[in-house]
Input
Amino acid sequence: MTRTLFVPCDSVSVGLDADKVAELFRLEIFKRGLDIAIVRNGSRGMVWLEPLVEIETDEGRVGYGPVTPDDVASVLDAMLGDGRHPLAIGRPEEVPFLARQQRLTFERCGIVDPLSLDDYRAHGGLAGLERAVALTPGEVVDEVKTSGLRGRGGAGFPTGIKWNTVMLAETERKYVVCNADEGDSGTFADRMLMEGDPFLLIEGMAIAGVAVGATQGYIYLRSEYPIAFAMTKRAIEIAREAGVLGPDVLGSGRAFELEIRMGAGAYICGEETSLLESLEGRRGIVRAKPPIPALKGLFGQPTLVNNVLSFCAVPWILSHGGQAYADYGMGRSLGTLPIQLAGNVMHGGLVEYAFGITLREIVEGFGGGTRSGRPVRAVQVGGPLGAYFPEHMLDLKLDYETLAAAKGLVGHGGIVVFDDSVDMARQARFAFEFCAIESCGKCTPCRIGAVRGVETIDRIMAGVEPDKHRKVLDDLCELMTEGSLCAMGGLTPVPVVSALTHFPEDFDAGVRSAAAE
Amino acid sequence: MADYEAWDADRAARIIAERTHLEGAALPILHALQDTFGFIHADVTELLAQALNLSRAEVHGTITFYHDFRPHLPGRHVVKLCRAEACQSVGADALHERIRQILGVEWHGTTGDGAVTVLPVFCLGLCACGPAALVDERPLARLTEQRLQGALAEATA
Output
C-alpha cells in the first residue's frame, strides 16, 4: 500500500531548502524501490521546525524537523524503522505549540494537499458553500452578522454589516475583492493560507459572491509572494474545472468568476481604496471616503472588499453556524485571531487563538522568549503602524478594545519581538522612513510629515535642541493623526508615540552617547 | 536568472493586444512586458496609451508609481533583502551592510560585472525565520552572507 510523505512547499520551508529535501527524498525512495508518494503540503506554522517532514503511520502522521538535505537518508531510515531520530517530534498535533491552539481558520493548513479538491472536501471543505447556496442571501449575511466577525485586515469593521450594505445595493454588476496585499512586517497568515489551503479562500469568496450578488471576484496579491500567487492561481483553475467557480456554482444556478491579480510593490495598495485604484490600472492613490467601496467601489460599482483572513473565516462560520464562532473571544472581539509571532523569538509561527489571550501567553508561552536568549524589551503589535509595548505591558489582552485603550492596534495580528539590544529611537525613525518611502503622496500630512518626522528624530537623537524638536514631533504626530486621508499617514504616529512614551531614555542624546561608548 | 528577450516593439504590441480585454488591464500588461523583456521600455508608454485609450501622462504616472517596474535591465540576478521590522529584530541592518560591502553595491545598485542587483523590500512574509531575502523569486530564510553566496552560486550554475 502506498504511504504518503509530506514535505511542505510553503515559502518558509522553501526558503529553508525544502525543495532540495523533497528532491532528495524522491531519489532515496526511488533508489530503495519504496512505495511512498510525496505530497507537498502547506505549513503547520511551527516555523522553527521547518521543513517539517511528516510520514503516515498506523498511529497517524509523525513528524521530523527541521530536516536539512543532509538529514534525508537518516530520516527515511527512521521512518522505515522504529521512528527514533534526533529530529523526531512525534505527532505534530501533540506538540504543545499546536496542541494548545484553537484552530478554526487554519484547521486544514499544513494537513491537506493544497491543490487536491478531494482532500479539501474530505477534511470538511465546501460544506460552508454548500450550505450558503441552499440559503437565501439574507440568511447567509445573517450568519456572518451572528458570528460577530470583524475585518481581520486591520480596521476591524463588522463584516456582516459590510456584506449587508453590498447585498442591498441595487445594480447590474457587483464585485467581491480580496485584499491579499499583506504588507505588514511580521504578518504572514494570508500567505500561509494561500499556499497551504487556497481552496479555503476561494470558498470564502464564493460564499461572499453568492451572498451579496456579485458575479466577479478579484484577489489582489502582493508581488513579494510568488509562491502564493502560483498556488492560488492553480487552485482557481481547479475550482473552476470542478464547478466550484464559474457560471453555475455547485449547481446552484448562480455564477461567480474569480481572478487573481498581482500588485507591483506598493505597501499603500493594502489600503482598500488604493487597492481598487490599482486594480483599475492606475496609480495606487487613496480615494477620499465617502463614497464607501461597498456602494461605489471597483469601476464605480458596489464592491465587497475583505481581507484574506476575513474571507477564510466564513466557510467555518457557515458550516458550523455563526453562534459557534461567536462563542470564542471576548467582548466585541469575537471568534479567533490568527496571530503571527515573529522577529526575535525562539518558537515563531502561526498561533490561532480566541481573542482575549494575553501578549505574554503568546510571546513567552508559545514563543518561548527571544531567539537570542536575551530579555524581551519590546514587542510591536499590529504591523509597522502598530504600537511598541514594553515588556511590563505584556499582560495586555489581545482584543480590539483593550489594545485601542493602550494606544495600540490589533492590525493584521502580527507580533514582532525585540530583545534588549533594540534602539527604540531608531525604530521610531524607521516608522517615518517607511512612511516616506511608501506614502502614495495624495495628502500632505503623510507625504511631507513623514519626511519631516525623519529629520526631526535625527535632530533629537543628535541632541540638537531636543526640547524644541520634541515639541515639533508632538505637533507633527498630532497633525498626521488628525489630518491624513487614510490609515497609512494617520497611524504612522502610533509606533512613534509608543516609542516616545514607553522608551523615552532611548531618545536622550546624553544617554545615547554614553551607551555608544 | 530569467531569460529575457531583446526589446521588440511588435512583440510588445502583441503582448498588449492579448490583454486589453481584461478589466483594468494596465498592471497585468506591465507585468507581462517586464517578465518578457526584463524592464519597461520607454516606448511602452506610447503603446499602452494608445491601446488603453489613456493619455501618456496617465500611463507614465502608473508605471512610475510602482516599485516593481524598472526602466532598465537589472543584473543577471536580483536579490531582494527585507528591511522591515521583523528582520531588523534579528540583525538585518548590519547583515545588509556587510552584504552590500562584499558585493560593492548600494541599495538599487548592480555589481560591476552585471551579475547582481540588490533591492530593498519591506516584508517577504518570512518573518518568523528572518533575516529574509528573495533571490530571483526564490525565498531564502535565516539569511547569512554564506547562504546568500550559496544561493547565488546555485542560481548561476
Notes: The first helix of chain A runs from residue 11 to 15. Chain A has a mean pLDDT of 97.
